[in-house]
Amino acid sequence: RPLHAKAEQHLMCEEHEDERINIYCLRCEAPTCSLCKVFGAHKDCEVAPLPAVYQRQKSELSDGIAMLVAGNDRIQAIISQMEEICRTIEENGRRQKQHLGLRFDSLYSILEERKKELLQSIAREQEAKVQRVRGLIRQYGDHLEASSKLVESAIQAMEEPQMAVYLQHSKELLKKITDMSKVSMSSRPEPGYENMDHFSINVDYVAEMLRTIEFQTGA
């Protein structure tokens, strides 16, 4: 037990208060005094001088500290290396995400362009068919209008009471009716003309191919 806190060499024996601790029991691995070796608890133990054991253990502790410090340096180096690996992984991941986005943007552009072309094809045929049918509607409408006017003229002629007056116009009227009846009104869209089903597309194989897009391995 220390009598003075400032110096370790003043440690005194607990059993023999007047004896300084000056030897080391190798079997019990404890510092003790000479009287303990001669008469006390360590009389049958092997002892060594305290300075020798002190220097030996201090040297061992110093070696241990050096070993731990070296180990800590190695661990710190490994940590730094792994932190750098994390940064590299994050940077590589960011770059590959960007590349992947560009590749898919390119696919989107191709799909949009093809969609636009196919829509234009449908629109062109739709416009052509509608224009043809509307032309026929105008043609039939013009014929209907002329025929209706002729019917009105014929009814008025039927109501003419004077035979001479009637006969002055009847021949021309009959000719007009005959000519009108001979006008062909057979032009009309063929059956199924309105069908646009031939613009159907099958994208199942393309969709399946897109679903199987995978990262290249060994590239």
Structural class: mainly alpha
Largest sheet: 3 strands, antiparallel
Portion of residues in helices?
55-70%
* Gyration radius from CA atoms, angstroms: 58 Å
CATH level 1 class label of the domain at 13-45: Alpha Beta
CATH topology of the domain at 13-45: Double Stranded RNA Binding Domain
Write down the secondary-structure element order.
EEHEHHH
Report the uncertain regions. 1-7
Number of beta-strand segments: 3
Give me a quick take on this structure.
It holds the Pfam family zf-B_box. Its EC number is 2.3.2.27. The protein is built from four helices and three strands; from the N terminus they run E-E-H-E-H-H-H.
Protein traits:
single chain, 219 residues, mainly alpha, Double Stranded RNA Binding Domain, three-stranded antiparallel beta sheet, 4 helices, 3 strands, 4% strand, disordered N terminus
3D structure, described in words:
The chain is mainly alpha-helical. The chain has a domain at 13-45: 2-Layer Sandwich (Double Stranded RNA Binding Domain). 65% of the residues lie in helices and 4% in strands. It has four helices and three strands; from the N terminus they run ββαβααα. The protein has helices spanning 34-38, 50-158, 163-182, 204-211, and strands at 23-25, 30-32, 47-49. Strands 2-1-3 form a three-stranded antiparallel beta sheet. α2 (50-158) packs antiparallel against α3. The longest helix is centred in the middle third of the chain and has 109 residues, at 50-158.
Topology:
Layout: E1 23-25, E2 30-32, H1 34-38, E3 47-49, H2 50-158, H3 163-182, H4 204-211
Helix pairs in contact: 2-3
